[in-house]
Amino acid sequence: MNIEDKVIIISGASRGIGRATALLLARNGAHVVVTARSAEDLKKLETEHANIVGVAGDVANEADMQAVVQTALDRFGRIDVVINNAGYGIFKNVDDITVDEWDAIMATNVKGTFLLTKAALPTLKAQGSGHVVVVASDVAKRTFAGGSLYTASKYAQEAFMGALRKEVRPFGIKVTGVYSGLVDSHFHEKGHGHETSKNWLKNEDMAESMLFIISRPAHVVIDEFMVHPLEQEY
To answer: Which residues form the Ketoreductase domain (predicted)?
Structure first.
């Protein structure tokens, strides 16, 4: 699984899946440009591997995402992979969701995916190669009570990927949707490492999945990658 010298951008990289993925890819020889809102967390991540470059920013801010892409180009001259990982959830019944909560989730999960991808696309098209990965969720394909807001954002990511895939394949650009089940991370209400989540997927499992996806030969694309812990019924 050779990714040496590939230039990879990862959003939402200050913790969880994004952080684990950045470290694994850097250890495998990639140049990794990471972004998140916390400059302090990114600086800590930079100290853990010389191949990691942090650029603080908000995925919902167009100028911030353009700056992330420009940093990658200034430092390395190209972009090979964009991993849209930033996202979070609010779980309430519809009549309890505020307009501000709706807007905030959509801004990060949906608009953020759009803005980072849009910023990188001119470079990927000019290169005639590249790979856009979107870390969605298995709830991009199912719903549950109390999940209307989160699942709506993930269904939107799914639709975005489907259309994007058709647009960019003629340019030699791959698009992969990653649909994870339960992951033992900060994302969940009881937090990372709780007894109830001991058999869930680990952040490192997701990082290994990302490494596998982006290291396929040039003629191979994994359009969709669904992964669950064994204890989660599918």
So the answer is: 6-179
